[in-house]
Amino acid sequence: MFSGLSQASDARSLAGGSNFYVNVLNSQSRFIWFGSHDPALPDAGSRLAEVSSFTTTDDVLDYDFDNGSDGTSTQATLGELTNAYDLFDDAETLDVSFIIGTQVDEGDDVTLANHLIGIAEGRRDAIAFVSPAITRTISNVDAAEDVKAWADQITSSSYGVLDSSALFVFDKFNDVFRHTVAAGSIAGLSAFTDDVADPWFSPAGLNRGQLRGVTKLAFNPRQNERDTLYKARVNPIVSFPGEGIVLFGDKTALARPSAFDRINVRRLFIVLQKAIATAARFQLFELNDQFTRAQFRNLVEPFLRDVQGRRGMTDFLVVCDETNNTPEVVDTNRFVADIFIKPARSINFITLNFIAVRTGVEFSEIVGQ
User: Fold this and answer.
1) d(CA 65, CA 60)
2) Model confidence at 191, in pLDDT bands (50, 70, 90)?
3) Cα atoms in the Cβ-side hemisphere of radius 13 Å centred on 17
4) What pLDDT was estimated at residue 233?
5) Rounded to the nearest 10 degrees, how much is the dihedral formed by the CA atoms of 7, 8, 13, 18?
6) Using an 8 Å Cβ cutoff, are 238 and 226 in contact?
7) Where are the alpha helices (DSSP H) in the chain?
8) Which of 5, 118, 290, 357 is at a distance of 20 to 30 A from 203, taking alpha carbons?
9) What integer pLDDT is reported at residue 23 of this predicted model?
10) Distance CA 148, CA 273 (A)
């Protein structure tokens, strides 16, 4: 709602900006843009002339939106979507943490997922959350096989996260229930984890992985299906009786065994790399000597100790001295720092052993045997 606007082209607001109604609408409104007055309306010509030579504040301009056209509900094409997502590929101009996939048809879901993961890999400071096409899991008795077939075609990368099922949610804007992909909800769990804990905590499980506002799942995998999907890098979304709908996996899309095949480890390194890279920029064009290297270590080590104290890692080591900044490195105007991290790992498997012992036996005699 815009009030107190002026018809004078040189009018100023209390903040010093333009208060001319044309400028205000065109620069601040998300829904209305001013083109020109309709000359067929009474006094429109004179009012248009008065825009540049203001004479009075008593008159109010009143227009109806009679000549507009309704939008279309046509789904964006794959090409249009990829072009739109490409706007987020520059890490220097846009700070993005999550790249969230959207609904596309079968077949296109593979292409779009790989495209988004490619953007995240190029940036190296964001994670792409992607989902299979809705039709792969709605009323599909072979949903587990179809989702696995989709996942097998996805690029192996620690910058991608895959999920298993479409969600049935209430669309409050249209007052209907509808199915939607889960990518946005899984990214929301990661944002929620940032809020209640830290990025290096897993967004999965009963503590931080409960999806709210979801009525039901299109595909609720059983244990054997969950095992199959998890081996295929797909994080199952499961509905447990009395416990709600839960993200029950925290794998990235990385196929080979690595510390980076877990969401919390990849997000830990994203946090560290972004923060330390910012600190390293202050060393540019400084002298590569012992003082500069010590100054860099003094910037980085307290930050890493803080992350360690917040359970992000178990240990670290910063090497920035003559061993890696050799005369050859210095002569080529480079600065090298090696940062070794032992990341904290999330629990994916729990083993409970219950042992019955005879009456009269001391526990100290058998514990550890």
Assistant:
1) 16
2) very high
3) 9
4) 96
5) 100
6) yes
7) 21-28, 44-52, 78-85, 108-123, 143-151, 183-196, 223-231, 263-281, 290-309, 327-331, 363-366
8) 118
9) 87
10) 32
Is residue 4 packed enough to be buried (19+ CB in 10 Å), middle (13-18) or exposed (0-12)? exposed
Who's near 59: CB < 8 A, 6+ residues apart? 7, 47
How much is the pLDDT for 274? 93
Q: Give the mean model confidence (pLDDT) for residues 165-181.
A: 93
User: HSE of 26 in the Cβ direction (CA atoms, 13 Å)?
Assistant: 8
**Tokens found for residue 164:** 């298993």
Are 181 and 134 spatial neighbours (Cβ–Cβ below 8 Å)? yes
Rg (CA), the chain: 29
3-state secondary structure of 128: strand
Q: Are 341 and 259 in contact (CB under 8 A)?
A: no
User: Which residue type is seen at 134?
Assistant: I
What pLDDT score does 354 carry?
A: 79
Q: Domain boundaries in the chain?
A: 1-68, 78-263, 282-369
Instruction: Provide CB contacts within 8 A for 214, sequence distance 6+.
Output: 167, 168, 169, 185, 245
Q: What is the pLDDT of residue 305?
A: 96
Q: What does the pLDDT read at residue 71?
A: 66
Contacts of 125 (CB under 8 A, 6+ apart): 91, 95, 96, 97, 270, 273, 274
Q: Please name the residues in contact with 21: beta carbons below 8 A apart, sequence gap of 6 or more.
A: 2, 5, 6, 7, 34
To the question of domain 78-263 being in CATH 3.40.50.11780, the answer is yes
Q: Reduce the DSSP state of residue 333 to 3 states and report it.
A: coil
Q: 244-266: per-residue pLDDT in tens?
A: 999 999 999 999 999 999 999 99
Pairing mode, strands 214-217 and 167-171: antiparallel
CA distance 301 to 339: 10
* Site of tokens 């082209």: 9
Query: Distance from first CA to last CA of the chain, Å, rounded?
Result: 75
Give the residues across from 124 on adjacent strands. Answer: none
Say what the pTM is: 0.79
